[in-house]
Amino acid sequence: SDGSIRLHQMTSEYPLMQWNDSTKGQPIIALQWALTRPAVFFALDASSNIYIWDLLENDLLPVAKQTIPSEKVVTMTLLGEPDKANGLLGIVLAKESGQIDIQYVKKKWALP
């Protein structure tokens, strides 16, 4: 609820990494690992900002932030084919009106 993200290992109650205030205090409403690239995850905050984290490129801050300005996004999920090396990775955004929007991610964050 405060924008903090914690990365845990299943065998420990203490986080391996913790990023405080990663969304400038906005609650995170969805977070998901990339299906095609294990070191990348996406976070959606309550202000419809999507943060892309690539832990191999930068483990302190997100590598990109995209604001969805047109309408409030209420949730997101990712789509892709982890068994294929084509690097296609999409973000499915559900908006407050019920509209669904699919956006494809740049190859540099999608390729295995």
UniProtKB/TrEMBL annotation:
InterPro entries: DYNC2I1, WD40_repeat_dom_sf
Any one Gene Ontology molecular-function term assigned to this protein's record: dynein light chain binding
GO biological process assignments: intraciliary transport
SUPFAM superfamilies: WD40 repeat-like
GO CC entries: cilium; cytoplasmic dynein complex
Protein name: WDR60 protein
Organism: Gymnorhina tibicen (Australian magpie)
